[in-house]
Amino acid sequence: MASDLSATRAVASRVAAHLVGKGQRAEAIEILTVWASAANDAEGHGLLAEALRHDPGHALAKAAFSTMEGIGQDPALEAARAKWTAPALEALDKDQRKPPAGGWQAEVGYNNNVKYKDHIYHIQTEDSGAKRPHIITHLFADGGRILKSFKRSYAEHATLTGTALSDIVRGWMKGQHKEMFILLRSGALDGVIAGKEKGGMEERFGAPDPDALMKKDKAEAKPADAPAPPPVVEPVRPSAPVAPQLPIRARLHVIRALGDGPVLHEIRGDEITLGKGGDIVVVGDRFVSDAHARLRFRDGKLELEDAGSFNGTYLRIRQPVELEWGDTFIAGDQLMVVEQNPTPNDGPDAYPTYFYSSPKWPTTFRVSQSWEGGATGMTVVARGATVQVGRAYSDLCFPNDFWLNDAHCLVEDQGGFIMLTDLGSRGGTFVKVKEPTRLVTGDELLVGRTRLRVEIVQRQSQASA
Length: 465
Fold this sequence. Notes:
This protein is an alpha+beta fold. Helix content is 25%, strand content 28%. The chain has ten helices and 25 strands. The chain has a ten-stranded antiparallel sheet, with no helix packed on it. The longest helix has 25 residues, at 162-186.
């Protein structure tokens, strides 16, 4: 019956998508072509189009098209048909969709290759299941050698069922996977890689907190690898009206400006605003709003937040950071936006005629250049899991941008979360500030195209006095 075929095809499409996500593309194409060729109709054409997206030249896809047109039968296609029967698909679909309750199978893990210092490493995170409720993450070097492992127990949550447990386990897996990625890319595991420090299994407790790793080096003292601030030069005029009796609590050193003005700004009060009409006046920068950014001392710590500016406020990253769809970052003088790839619309027309193109890379995201006024410039779809931005030898290449390094920064899909990493560039990579963010000495911010370096003068003893 047509309704039975339609239902089985829906199962086939769902199972194929799951297999593609696990890297089993060949099996997915078998399923799609088998059930596409079951009838020459619009549903079949849709399944065949999906198979062609994965591999336009696949022999089974061509055989399925011939079968649908009544040209003949192909032995390889018939063998696949005997393998992927409706009961086999339903059993596989049922197994994939079981809720993670009680003694059910473990959650599907994360597996990613990561390039660091011209070497490829592999990070693997697996769930051992509710009967052995712990998550293990391994960092592999060449040849499958395990350098470092993390283990976390979620036994305290193992009594939960259904999506409640699934959400916790998936979140913990993602967080622990991200912890290993950040430690590798930050250089924290260099001693283990070199054999100078002990690797092996490390047991960790509580929910993963990868964001804490990003902020670990943010002490009030100047970081060891941060460039020394320029010599203090007193401004010709004060940047904001301040009470002379108030002590200096922080300074902003001007690294780059588009107009004339002081090379140093002093912060004395609890809160100041940067902008064309702010307490600190940014001169000659058309990308700056009247009230652009706000600096505020809260509990003795300096915080930065955007003041509702049109173009946003940006902070230089120290460690890899996670991006969400639509997030923007700045490398050199280029404003970039990270976007999820749209659903393919290259299916067959009513005749049917199939759309053919260059081979498509299996990918989930793209990075686009944003021009002044909001127009989109160059766009690059990730080749697999990465997009590199730079002045040369990069996917997004801007040879005339002085502020870019040849290999400047990298955007990666790491098991379903998008990570931005600076590749040791001299000019830095900046992300948009979306919430109040604590600053320390050596931090750099972008207000429009004006670049400022933070120097904290107030010490902890002063803050608590």
